[in-house]
Write a structure and sequence with these properties.
- The protein is α+β, with helices and mostly antiparallel strands.
- The protein has 5 helices and 16 strands.
- The protein has helices at residues 16-27, 50-63, 86-94, 162-165, 251-262, and strands spanning 2-7, 31-34, 43-48, 67-71, 99-110, 113-117, 120-125, 132-138, 141-148, 150-154, 177-183, 193-196, 201-207, 214-218, 221-226, 231-245.
- Strands 6-5-16-13-8-9 form a 6-stranded antiparallel β-sheet. Strands 12-11-10-7-14-15 form a 6-stranded antiparallel β-sheet, with no helix packed on it.
């Protein structure tokens, strides 16, 4: 068995969690090395939070490598174990005592460049000042035109991220849909909408704020700047990220536990 380890140095600052993982693998005769997208692995292990997982999910989805997340983040919807559970987790991997959970990604096209997102694709005004004006179409049918701070197209996985904060619905991970959520729309009629996962969605920037442009973010990373008249196309991708899960804890019980632990009142 060969494992690729991706550790976030901002989370595992002294490298102690990485050392614990490498020691557990060595003690069981498992080969482990620094994760590289060019290499094949039986598993990829991400040490950090959900943001860390987003950095490796695209490469792992392309090659079909399952991901195990060790949580050093704040919420950790996508992670599976805590650092104290590393030895047990490695034992379960070695014994093939796990299940795989499939999470869909989406494809975004900006100026003929393709980007893949596990969470979301966001068009957002570049700076302060005025709102941007957007036109949204699905299968070339007009959905709406409005002014807003931004617009989110997200996967079911991303429905518990930025979209949730913007008023979007939580969507079960096995639901084949893309959720469309406006950010602070300047209208009373505009609401989030959910469409089929392989619908062709076009987000067109009609007018921009005071700096004349808007930014496109893929899983929180700024990838392009666009000018009025530019279009971002979003649709489903035919590959999925696979996550290692131990036991049968459901998405909904995990969601309730994570949101309650994150809440200031609990």
């Amino acid at each position: 068995m060969k494992i690729g380890v991706y550790s976030n140095p901002q989370k595992d600052r002294d490298g102690e969690v990485r050392k614990l993982l490498l020691a557990a693998c060595a003690a069981r005769g498992i080969e482990a090395e620094q994760f590289s997208p060019q290499n094949y692995y039986d598993f990829a292990v991400s040490i950090g939070g959900d943001g860390t997982i987003l950095r490796v999910a695209r490469e792992c989805a392309a090659t079909g490598v399952p991901i195990l997340g060790i949580n050093l983040g704040t919420v950790g919807f996508l992670t599976e174990v805590e650092p104290s559970e590393i030895e047990r987790a490695v034992d379960k991997l070695s014994a093939r005592d796990y299940i795989l959970e499939r999470r869909a990604l989406i494809d975004a096209t900006v100026r003929e460049k393709h980007f893949h997102a596990l969470n979301d694709v966001v068009v957002m005004r570049s700076g302060g000042g005025r709102m941007i004006s957007m036109e949204v179409r699905v299968a070339d049918e007009l959905i709406d035109r409005f002014s807003c701070d931004g617009y989110i197209a997200c996967t079911p996985t991303g429905s518990t991220a930025y979209s949730l904060s913007a008023g979007g619905s939580v969507i079960g991970p096995n639901t084949p849909v893309i959720a469309l959520t406006p950010v602070n729309p300047h209208t009373l009629r505009t609401r989030p909408i959910v469409v089929g996962s392989f619908e062709n969605i076009t987000l067109t920037l009609k007018n921009a704020g005071t700096d004349g442009g808007a930014a496109v973010y893929v899983d929180g990373e700024r990838v392009e700047t666009i000018a009025p008249g530019s279009t971002v196309t979003v649709t489903g991708w035919d590959k999925s990220a696979m996550f290692v899960r131990f036991g049968k804890k459901s998405f909904y019980s995990r969601l309730l536990g994570k949101l309650n632990s994150w809440s200031a009142g609990d």
